[in-house]
Design a protein that fits this description.
Two copies of one chain form a homodimer. By secondary structure, chain A is α+β, with helices and mostly antiparallel strands. In chain A, helix 3 packs across helix 4 and helix 6 crosses helix 7. Chain A is elongated and about 60 Å long. At the A-B interface, helix 2 and helix 4 of A face helix 2 and helix 4 of B. The structure holds a DNA duplex.
Chain lengths: 204, 204
DNA sequence: GGCCTTATGTGATATTCGTCACTTAAAATC
DNA sequence: GATTTTAAGTGACGAATATCACATAAGGCC
C-alpha cells in the first residue's frame, strides 16, 4: 500500500513495510494513543491526519502538531524501544489509515536499512522544529495572533478557506477558554479578516 | 579524553572520538552557537554546562534546557547534515570543554557504529521530552511556579542550595521581566521558601 | 412548527502579568 | 571613604487573559 508516500526509503524497505506492517483504520475523533499509555508500535500515516496534543493535570489541552501522510509519531520510536509511556495524546482528525510497525521490526530495520534511520532522524528533527515553533508561540505571541496562525494552519491542511470547527475546539487547542476565543474572533470579524457562522470560520 | 562519560558507546567509537574530535574550551558566557548560524559541527560536552535557549524577534529569551557532560546539542546533528541553520542559541554557563565532531565524521559513524546511532537517538528523545516539559510549563504554569522549578533545576545542576544569579537573569530565562521576578521572589521569601541576597538566592 | 441541544455573544469582574518611574541598597572602583 | 555601577524593592497603572453568569441564536429532531 505505501508508495511515493515516503520517497526517502528504498524499495527493499518499502516492501518490508508492506508485508510486516499492520493496517488499521481510525474514525474521526478516535484516540490512537493516550498519555501515559504503553507504546507497543510505531504508526505511519497512510492517509488522513493525526492531531498530537499535550494535556496538563487539570485536563487542559494544547495542540502540538499534526502528523500527515508519510509521517510518523516519532515519540513512539524511541519510546517503544525503551518501554516508555507516551507523553502525548494522538487523535484522528478525520478518517485515517495507519500502518503499525512493531518495535521489534523497527529495531531490526535500523540495522538493515540505512534509509530507515534517515527516515526516523528526519521525523525527529522535523517534530523538534515544530515543537520549537510551539514554544515560541505560547511564549511570545498573544492569543489573537495564535488564533490566526492556527486558522491558517487548518486552512492549509485541508486546502479550504472554510474551516469547520467550533470556538470551543480552538480554545482547547490553544489551551485557553472559549469566551476569549469568541471575543477575539468577533473582533477579527469586525476587522474583515474572517467571517463567522455556526461551526464554520471563513478566511477572507 | 572521553571515558565513562558516554557509557552507551563502544570502545572503537570511543577511540575515534579521541582521534577525530577537536577539543575546544569555552569561557563562561561564551556563545557556542547563535540563532541562524550555520551548523558545521556536532559538539559533545566533556565538562561544564551549555545553556540552550530560544529568542524571539524582540530579543526576548527563553531557556529551553541545559546540556551536560556526555551529552550533545542534537539540533546540530541533523541540522549539520542538511546544512540547516540553527534555531537556537547555546551559551556556556561555566567554563566548558567540548569535543567538536565534523558532520562528515558523524555521517560515517552512523554507517559504522550502531552505538553512535543509539547515542543520537537517545539524545533526540531526551531533548524532545525536555521540550515537552518546557511547553507544559509555559502553557499551564504561573510564573511563580516556573521560578520555583527553575531554582530547583539550577540547584540540582550545581548540587548547592545557594544559587548564584540575578533577578534579571531569571527573568530572561523565563521570558518575563525583572520586576515581576523580584516581586514574586520577595513573596516567596515572605513564605520562608527562600532567602534573598544580592546575586544569590538560597533555597530553604 | 415547537422543543431541545449545542454554539455563540457579551457584560462584569478578578487575576496575572508587563511597564514606567522611581528609590534604596550593595558591591566595585577609585 | 567617596563615588560609581549594578542589583533589587516597590508603587501605580494598564493590558491581556480568565472566569462567572447569563442571553441569544442556529440546527437537529420529533
Amino acid at each position: 500500500i505505501p508508495k511515493q508516500l515516503i520517497p526517502q526509503i528504498d524499495e527493499a524497505l518499502r516492501s518490508e513495510l508492506q508485508t510486516k506492517g499492520h493496517l488499521k483504520k481510525l474514525e474521526t475523533g478516535e484516540v490512537m494513543l493516550r498519555e501515559n499509555a504503553n507504546i507497543k508500535a510505531i504508526p505511519i500515516i497512510l492517509s488522513g491526519t493525526l492531531k498530537v496534543s499535550r494535556e496538563d493535570q487539570a485536563g487542559k489541552e494544547l495542540l502540538l502538531y499534526y502528523v500527515k501522510p508519510g509521517e510518523s509519531c516519532v515519540m513512539s520510536f524511541f519510546g517503544g524501544l525503551h518501554h516508555d509511556t507516551s507523553k502525548i495524546k494522538a487523535v484522528a482528525e478525520e478518517p485515517t489509515e495507519i500502518l503499525l510497525i512493531s518495535t521489534e521490526d523497527s529495531n531490526e530495520w535500523v540495522k538493515k536499512y540505512p534509509s530507515w534511520i534517515d527516515f526516523i532522524f528526519y521525523l525527529y528533527h522535523k517534530r523538534f522544529e515544530e515543537l520549537l515553533e510551539v514554544v515560541n508561540e505560547i511564549a511570545f505571541q498573544k492569543i489573537d495572533e495564535r488564533i490566526i496562525h492556527l486558522l491558517n494552519k487548518k486552512a492549509s491542511l485541508t486546502g479550504h478557506k472554510e474551516i469547520i470547527t467550533t470556538h470551543q475546539q480552538i480554545a482547547d487547542e490553544l489551551g485557553t477558554s472559549r469566551e476569549v476565543v469568541s471575543r477575539l474572533l468577533k473582533q477579527m470579524e469586525g476587522d474583515k479578516k474572517i467571517a463567522l457562522s455556526r461551526n464554520k470560520i471563513t478566511l477572507l
